[in-house]
Amino acid sequence: MLLHQYVIGKHSTRSIVALTLASVALLLMLGAIHVNADMSSSPWAAEVMWGNGTLWQMMAVPGQGSNNPAEPLYIVAPQTSTPQAPPNNDHLPGVAHDHVISVPPDNHGSYNANWHVYVVLCTPSAITAKTCVPDFETFPGPNGPGTGPTLPLAQSINGQSITSDSVILLGLSSGEVVLHDTGINFVCLVQQIKS
């Protein structure tokens, strides 16, 4: 679950241990997040997402999801004044957010329409160093929206907007962010939005 690594040459052992313990504590709090993966109430759930700095449209088929291997779909803080999913959304109620995917290839047989959802959170040390800007959101808990933990949903990493998975992956490798694995997989077709 802890998907970042540290460069020993930049940090003392003591700061690595403190940072690791703080990140582990943050991830332990995440057990109380509840995300709704049931898309059966709508024939097609449609939302906008970021991919390589451009907008894409996703069309999720009805159903409970898929257990097949999946591509990552990241949940981040809104990147513009209009969130892709407003607070009254049906899959992460109470949390305004955007979505980020890796851009699908031109489908030469390797594109996978199965997606796995991760929440991107700033680490405590990155918040202190101001290398990850958080949007503190109260996540849904067992008693509904607003009853779970308040967590630092990543809004920017190292001064960059999070509109590409490459920004997230660099943030993971440098310890600026951690991923919370929601355990949710779903089937979703994506298409670039033409302006």
Structure explained in plain terms:
It is a single chain. With 195 residues, this protein is an alpha+beta fold. The protein has one domain. The protein has helices at residues 13-29, 124-129, 165-173, and strands at 45-51, 54-60, 71-76, 98-101, 114-122, 132-138, 150-157, 160-161, 177-192. The strands form two sheets. It has a six-stranded mixed beta sheet. A three-stranded antiparallel beta sheet has the order 6-7-8. A hairpin with a 2-residue loop joins strand 7 (150-157) and strand 8 (160-161). The longest helix is centred in the N-terminal third of the chain and has 17 residues, at 13-29.
**Total domains:** 1
Tally of individual helices = 3
Number of strands: 9
Gyration radius, in Å: 17 Å
Query: What value does the average pLDDT take?
Result: 76
Describe the global form.
globular
Order of helices and strands: HEEEEEHEEEHE
Q: What class, by secondary structure content?
A: alpha+beta
* Strand proportion: 25-35%
Strand neighbour order, sheet with most strands = 1-2-9-5-3-4
The low-confidence runs, each spanning 5 or more residues with pLDDT under 50, are 1-42
- Biggest pleated-sheet summary: 6 strands, mixed
Helix content: 10-25%
Separation, N- and C-terminal Cα atoms: 38 Å
